[in-house]
Structures are given as structure tokens and as C-alpha cells.
């Protein structure tokens, strides 16, 4: 305390840090208890068969983030192998890693959510072609969080690029004649300013 009876800013910061650590620890304990409670029940495994024939055994709780698989379970169509004919094994591994990280993310406190957000951005920094296949898989499986994250990453990749660079990135053929392109550029001059 200073002579005026006010706590110094370093003491206040230390107190706040201790409080946030305690809060974070409590949230982790609650999450752990939630996981332990659910782990006492037998874990139901789903078999996911990819387009290249790989079979993945994944806990049902992990894959419930997929709206498609959730509906299959509700409809009783997930008792045997679930064929994922448009998803390869290496792409499904990425999807499963994302889903594992996000199980129970609604129980996280604000600090843990921020850590998860940072993990997401590092996780999604993958090459362009695999990223597009992850987007296709996330869309097919109905994993909104992964789809949103992937779309944001594509937007980040496009930022600051002109039309020709974006066409090259996506393999889009320019089917405009030079006259049509010049007309469009003149008509939409305000966009390039």
C-alpha cells in the first residue's frame, strides 16, 4: 500500500492474476469432473469409413459435433460403419483432431476460449488444397465451427490479392474477352480505388 492507503498497481495485478488462475483452475476441474462423469459410462465408438478405405474408430461424443452424424445416430443409421465417400483418410484425421479439441468447449471460461481460438488459428494454417478438402468435409459433416474457421482462413488468404491472383489461387479460368473485362473494370472503378 502507498501512503494514501491505496494498493499499488502491481499488487492489484497480482491479485487479479491469482483470481483468474483460480477461476481457470475451477473451470478445468468442473470440465474434468464432467469428462470423468461421462467416462464412467461405456464409451460408444463409431466406425467411420473414408473414401480410400481407412476405418476410424472415434468416440460418439467427439463426432456429435457433426450434424450429419448426429442425425444418422438419431435415425439409427450409425450402428455399423458410416461411409464417408467424399472424405479421404488424411482429411478425416484433421477433422477428428478439430472435433477432439472442441469437445465440451461450451464449458470453457473466457480465458480458455481465447486459448482455444489461438489454437484454432494455428491449426487451420494448412496448405490451400488440403484446406479446401477440409472445407468440403466440414460442410458435408455439418461441423459449423470448422466450416466457419476454414472460410475465415480462405478470406485471410485472399486479402490484398487482385482478381488475377484470386483466379490463379482457385484455378478459375478467365472467360471474359479483353473488351468485356475492360468494360467491367470501368464500370466498377470504385472497387479498385
Automatic annotation (TrEMBL):
Residues 25-34 have a biased composition (Basic and acidic residues). Residues 45-103 form the SKP1 component POZ domain. GO terms for biological process: jasmonic acid mediated signaling pathway; protein ubiquitination; ubiquitin-dependent protein catabolic process. Belongs to the SKP1 family. Part of a SCF (SKP1-cullin-F-box) protein ligase complex. Involved in ubiquitination and subsequent proteasomal degradation of target proteins. Together with CUL1, RBX1 and a F-box protein, it forms a SCF E3 ubiquitin ligase complex. The functional specificity of this complex depends on the type of F-box protein. In the SCF complex, it serves as an adapter that links the F-box protein to CUL1. This is SKP1-like protein. It comes from Aquilegia coerulea.
